[in-house]
């Protein structure tokens, strides 16, 4: 979660979609809710059975406080290579036919949002979600980390921690855990739970009781 945007424009887009789906494809930054033309592809999370074993190993404790929290304590987006920062790398990875300019900014392409099944044609309509939000990580143990470790967490391309999704959906998620929010696209819940548990396991973060119950219910149904 890294930027705030008004939802008025998005609401108008969805309203128009209901009556003029075909016309939307021609508009800048419009959404097409038909079959995916692009496929977000963060690293594949472990199987449901492995995720269940990871979940069982996580420390269960009440969420900590946000006292002292700041997004600045999780430096992002850092340069990954050349002129490309982490956001730009994920946009390229998760999109289809993504073209970039000399500064590595995406100038064209399409992005399928796994969270809600929408396809976008403007990078400005896409957020890079931290699957385990930064504030959630802080409350789960990252408050004791070094800034360097928080930077690694906020820019992690080796685990399923970053994914390109519809901006308003990302903003609706905020810093909620799976007991409070799940992707609108229910068919993605199993993958999302596997991603969440993988990240928390590898970073040694704790979970609270409602979070564990929600994750257990999802993974047991995978």
Write structural notes for this entry.
There is one protein chain. The strands form 3 sheets. A 4-stranded antiparallel beta sheet has the order 1-6-5-4. It has a two-stranded antiparallel sheet with strand order 2-3. It is globular and about 45 Å long. A hairpin with a 5-residue loop joins strand 4 (95-100) and strand 5 (106-112). The protein has helices at 8-17, 21-24, 48-57, 86-94, 134-139, 147-154, 167-173, 189-202, 209-220, and strands at residues 31-32, 79-81, 84-85, 95-100, 106-112, 119-120, 126-130, 162-166. With 222 residues, the chain is an alpha+beta fold.
Descriptors:
disordered N terminus, alpha+beta, 4-stranded antiparallel sheet, globular, 222 residues, 8 strands
List the helices and strands and how they pair.
Layout: H1 8-17, H2 21-24, E1 31-32, H3 48-57, E2 79-81, E3 84-85, H4 86-94, E4 95-100, E5 106-112, E6 119-120, E7 126-130, H5 134-139, H6 147-154, E8 162-166, H7 167-173, H8 189-202, H9 209-220
Antiparallel strand pairs: 1-6, 2-3, 4-5, 5-6, 7-8
Helix pairs in contact: 3-8, 3-9
């Amino acid at each position: 979660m890294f930027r705030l945007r008004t939802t008025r424009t998005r609401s108008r887009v969805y309203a128009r979609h209901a009556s003029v789906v075909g016309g939307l494809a021609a508009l800048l930054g419009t959404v097409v809710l038909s079959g995916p033309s692009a496929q977000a592809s963060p690293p594949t999370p472990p199987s449901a059975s492995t995720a269940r074993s990871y979940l069982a190993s996580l420390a269960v404790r009440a969420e900590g406080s946000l006292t002292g929290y700041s997004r600045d304590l999780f430096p992002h987006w850092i340069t990954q290579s050349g002129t490309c920062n982490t956001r730009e790398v994920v946009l390229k990875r998760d999109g289809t036919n993504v073209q970039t300019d000399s500064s590595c900014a995406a100038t064209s392409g399409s992005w399928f949002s796994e969270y809600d099944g929408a396809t976008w044609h403007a990078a400005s309509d896409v957020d890079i979600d931290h699957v385990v939000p930064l504030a959630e990580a802080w409350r789960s143990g990252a408050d004791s980390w070094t800034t360097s470790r928080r930077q690694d967490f906020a820019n992690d391309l080796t685990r399923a921690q970053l994914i390109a999704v519809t901006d308003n959906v990302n903003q609706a998620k905020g810093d909620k855990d799976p007991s409070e929010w799940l992707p609108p696209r229910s068919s993605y819940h199993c993958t999302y739970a596997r991603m969440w548990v993988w990240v928390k396991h590898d970073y040694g973060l704790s979970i609270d009781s409602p979070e564990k119950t929600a994750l257990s219910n999802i993974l047991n149904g995978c």
